[in-house]
Specification:
208 residues; homodimer; DNA-binding; 2 domains; Nonspecific Lipid-transfer Protein, Chain A; Arc Repressor Mutant, subunit A
DNA sequence: CCGCATCCTCATGGATACTG
DNA sequence: CAGTATCCATGAGGATGCGG
């Protein structure tokens, strides 16, 4: 990206992450370190040459590092500690986007892994966690879960631990609940959610 | 901007504010509502056609509104309530940029008004305010001031109120102090700052 | 297959001149 | 002052190639 030539923190940030696709690449790597192919899959619409360019740029800027994957010569991309600190600006933008998300997908593609960033970003600043609990999220394949602990929320693929409840709803509903734009009671009377197991624990997690 | 086609809050945010210059326009309007000419002056390097385009886009998206200035037919641009909520993502990016800013201006242009966003963004999340005080900032024309209150920090042009102290330092030093990357003691022994008036009150404000 | 590099086309951005 | 119009350079997107 061409420099803005301004001695301003926002301008200098944007010279690193302001290029098209760059923050979305960081989003994918915040979810988990990934290989080239994983990034292509997690970033529907990106051109392969752009992904290669952007990964080089981000590596040169100190946001991303490329490293050998667990065993062998396959390489993997991950965030540096400084790059991982982009979780906060990205979380802020996700919260800001609530009015854009309640409209629903409208034909846009969706990947369950994106909830791994969005739901904690929405809940953490809004809900005081009282209960430790694990709730299944029935939003496609693979099955996901939301873990609530004292230190915050975590969303990821089900890891086999016992579920206190299972929440069956579409992504827009889950985001609405997490953002507090929708109460569980309303969602229930509208027929948007179905809860198996301990409903009270779900109610506690999404408490206003 | 071309759509990403992803049902993800970050992607949808970036479809609104991800275009080049857009967040910098919002930055200027977070400092204060402004007329077209003010924006041209506050955004060195922007082309006039781009500013016109972007203001149209942001207005259509509900981020900016155009309205008649105080009296007469002159128009002025201001943020909508939703647009003003971009203060948090922008503040996060400003905090993230600290490693990029401690390098100093390196020839980039600088406007004192940019500190009006940066210094509170850096101090608010780091320093517990104990004292109400007003400190002059000697960084050019017009003279600026930093007001500390219980509810937070505010930076703007001096409004004539009594100053408890005056801090004379270059912008990089002020940002380093605000970010906590530099202690007042270090800055003083390095000859980077000169303080007139009550030094202890300056020390309290920038306390680690 | 994976991890890119090349090529080509077209949309967008940037600089400047111009107008009501 | 507050933008438009114009022209040129750059960058995005898509298809494809290619070595390991």
């Amino acid at each position: 990206m061409r420099s803005y030539g301004q001695y301003c923190g926002l301008a200098r940030s944007l010279e690193i992450v302001g290029d098209r696709w760059n923050l979305l690449i960081v989003r994918q790597l915040l979810i988990a370190p990934a290989r080239y192919r994983d990034l292509i899959d997690g970033l529907p619409g990106i051109a392969t040459n752009l992904l290669a360019d952007r990964l080089r740029d981000l590596e040169a800027a100190g946001v991303v590092e490329r490293r050998p994957a667990d065993k062998g010569s396959v390489i993997e991309y991950a965030l540096t500690p400084w790059g991982a600190q982009l979780r906060q600006p990205i979380g802020s933008l996700i919260r800001w986007s609530t009015p854009l998300m309640v409209r629903g997908p409208e034909g846009d593609s969706f990947r369950p892994e994106w909830l791994a960033l969005a739901v904690p970003a929405l809940l953490d600043t809004r809900v005081k966690v009282r209960t430790s609990a694990t709730v299944g999220l029935d939003i496609g394949d693979p099955p996901y879960q939301l873990c609530a602990t004292r230190s915050g929320f975590e969303v990821g693929p089900q890891d086999g631990r016992d579920l206190d409840a299972t929440l069956r709803a579409d992504p827009a509903t889950i985001l609405g609940l997490a953002a507090g734009a929708l109460t569980l009671t309303d969602a229930h009377t509208l027929g948007l959610v179905k809860i198996d197991g301990d409903e009270s624990i779900v109610r506690t997690i999404f408490a206003a």
